[in-house]
Amino acid sequence: MILDDIVAKKKIRLAQSKYKPDIKKLYEISEAGNRASFYKALAKPNLSIIGEIKKASPSRGLIRPDFNPIELAYQYENSVDAISVLTEEDYFMGKGEYLTDVHKAVNLPVLRKDFIISHSQILEAGELGASAILLIVAVLKESRIIREFIDLAAALNMDCLVEVHNHKELETALEANAKIIGINNRNLLDFSEDIYTTVRLRQSVPEDKLVVSESSIHTSHDIEILAKADVNAVLVGESFMKSGNISEKAAEFRRAYENSN
């Protein structure tokens, strides 16, 4: 399965990594408390949009041949509420430097989207400039580990988007006291897509949690479906990456959401 392959490759990369935490920098980050808040960006009224910067994916191959993270960040700046940056190297052609470049270029909160399995990746995310990190329940499995990672991220003023695909994973995320639940409409085991995954799982998410619908969001009709499910935010990558005008596409999504409520 592709998810197992990605995690296996990630373990090899981590074993070979030369990253050493900069304790002074991490202390300054934990004390400063001035990083743009990912949670607040999603908690506002109406639809919040997380625009993704992604060069490639295992299911789609190369998505954006003319890939320039800083240019994309500028296009997103006045159109979305937060930015997600892929930093996974082998299957998504990402780099940690992309996140740092985006963080320095714009004032929006930035999510590190990767397959996080170790404390060192969380520390590194803080140093790279992330306001939030992605934690995938299908990868981490245990609520104890997820809670530990959430606490470490919080110490560095970072939020966590905890991603689920089914009811069992949702239960695990809630046990870990996740505040932001990401519902992925793409099954990471076989990469099949179903926008109604969000609709089904949303009913089981407590009202005090923020809900983000992720992946397989392409049209205004998709947004209308998600609006009726009362999601707080959407994470959109491929549709923006292939769009000729990100600003117009984001405005189209916001109109569809507002017209459905």
Q: Which descriptors apply to this entry?
A:
261 residues, alpha/beta, 8-stranded parallel barrel, two-stranded antiparallel ribbon, 10 strands, 46% helix, 17% strand, globular
Characterise this structure.
This protein is α/β, with parallel strands linked by helices. Helix content is 46%, strand content 17%. It contains 13 helices and 10 strands. It has helices at 2-16, 23-32, 38-43, 69-77, 96-105, 119-128, 137-140, 143-155, 167-175, 196-202, 220-228, 238-241, 246-259, and strands spanning 48-53, 56-57, 61-62, 82-86, 110-113, 132-136, 159-164, 180-184, 210-214, 233-236. An 8-stranded parallel beta barrel has the order 1-4-5-6-7-8-9-10, surrounded by 5 helices. A two-stranded antiparallel sheet has the order 2-3. β7 (159-164), α9 and β8 (180-184) form a beta-alpha-beta unit. The longest helix has 15 residues, at 2-16. The chain is globular, with a radius of gyration of 17 Å. The model has no long low-confidence stretch (mean pLDDT 94).
Shape: globular
- H-E order: HHHEEEHEHEHEHHEHEHEHEHH
Query: Strand sequence of the main sheet, in spatial order?
Result: 1-4-5-6-7-8-9-10
Question: What is the number of E strands?
Answer: 10
Class of secondary structure makeup: alpha/beta
Which percent band covers the strand fraction? 15-25%
Discrete helix count:
13
- How far apart the termini lie comes to 39 Å
Low-confidence stretches: none
The radius of gyration over CA amounts to: 17 Å
Describe the protein's topology.
Layout: H1 2-16, H2 23-32, H3 38-43, E1 48-53, E2 56-57, E3 61-62, H4 69-77, E4 82-86, H5 96-105, E5 110-113, H6 119-128, E6 132-136, H7 137-140, H8 143-155, E7 159-164, H9 167-175, E8 180-184, H10 196-202, E9 210-214, H11 220-228, E10 233-236, H12 238-241, H13 246-259
Parallel strand pairs: 1-4, 1-10, 4-5, 5-6, 6-7, 7-8, 8-9, 9-10
Antiparallel strand pairs: 2-3
Helix pairs in contact: 4-5, 8-9, 11-13
